[in-house]
Each structure stands twice: as structure tokens, then as C-alpha cells.
TrEMBL record:
Protein family according to the UniProt entry: Belongs to the AGR family.
First and last residue of the signal peptide: 1-23
Keywords of the record: Signal
Protein name: Anterior gradient protein 3
Xref: InterPro entries: AGR/TXD, Thioredoxin-like_sf
Gene Ontology molecular functions: dystroglycan binding
GO CC term, one of those recorded: endoplasmic reticulum
The keyword Signal is assigned to this record: yes
A Pfam family matched in the record: Thioredoxin_7
């Protein structure tokens, strides 16, 4: 009888600890901090350098979103970006994604100034695509929530340009 209860207790402990481990794992998966609200299903790289490395390795363009937490235009764009299924799907599958709340040392990422929000594309050949611009002549790489269809076109353009030019 002693052996039987020890075995039962051991099994109970194993069951409890594996459930606990699963709960901890689930807990860790929860809010993905790197997304910062731009899309939790997207895999985000942490740094520009990592983004360049992944772009080259995977032959996917890198999309860099410069933004700030207390910028109302960034918040509005982020909401539209996160709610758009087509953007989210393309970002998940076809791009290396980075959102930054600080400037990089790469001056190519701020060809017309360091404003936010600013979205730039970098080719897998590590060329910053300064030719993929938004709708505004004073801030070439900014987008507003109503420009989401235009951003989608630019994402497609970034994908097309790789296939034709490399």
C-alpha cells in the first residue's frame, strides 16, 4: 500500500508540474513586446543590424517603421496597420519586420529627415529603397491611416522590385 500511494503522489506531482510548465510557457508567449502594438502575429526583429542580416539570409525585404510612443500620428497609423489583414499577412510572410522607437546610425534611413511615423524598405541586397515613397512631398516616407491602401501598394512594389532586380 505504501508503494502504491508513493506512485500515485509521484504521478500527481508530474501532472501538476507539467501543467505548470505549460502555463508558464503560455504566459511567456503572451504580449509580444517587440510588436509594440503593430501586430502580435508578426515576427519582429530587435535591431536594424539583425534586420539586415535576416533580409539578406531570407531574401526578403526589410520594412523599418520609425515611430514614437507619444506621437498621435504614429498611434493612428499603428492602429490602422494592426487592423489591416492584408498588411498583417504580408508582414508575417513576405517581410523582415522592424519597428524602432529610436533613430539608427544609418543615415540612409532618414534621407529627408528624422520624422515619425516613417516607413522605409531595405532590399535583401541591403540597399535602402529611397525610391519607395508615400504620398507627401514634404515627408516622403510618412503614411497616414487613410494611406493604408497606398502602403499596401508600396509593400507589393518592394516585393516586385526584388524579383525583377536581383
Amino acid at each position: 500500500i505504501m508503494l502504491h500511494s508513493t506512485l500515485a503522489l509521484s504521478l500527481l506531482l508530474i501532472a501538476v508540474s507539467s501543467n505548470l510548465a505549460m502555463a508558464i510557457k503560455k504566459e511567456k508567449r503572451a504580449p509580444q513586446t517587440l510588436s509594440r502594438g503593430w501586430g502580435d502575429e508578426i515576427t519582429w526583429v530587435q535591431t536594424y543590424e539583425e534586420g539586415l542580416y535576416q533580409a539578406k539570409k531570407s531574401n526578403k525585404p526589410l520594412m523599418v517603421i520609425h515611430h514614437l510612443e507619444d506621437c498621435q500620428y504614429c498611434q493612428a497609423l499603428k492602429k490602422a496597420f494592426a487592423e489591416n489583414e492584408e498588411i498583417q499577412e504580408m508582414a508575417q510572410n513576405n517581410f523582415i519586420m522592424l519597428n524602432l522607437m529610436h533613430e539608427t546610425t544609418d543615415k540612409n534611413l532618414s534621407p529627408d529627415g528624422q520624422y515619425v511615423p516613417r516607413i522605409m524598405f531595405v532590399d535583401p541586397s541591403l540597399t535602402v529603397r529611397a525610391d519607395i515613397t508615400g504620398r507627401y512631398s514634404n515627408r516622403l516616407y510618412t503614411y497616414e491611416p487613410q494611406d493604408i491602401p497606398f502602403l499596401i501598394e508600396n509593400m507589393k512594389k518592394a516585393l516586385r522590385l526584388i524579383q525583377t532586380e536581383l
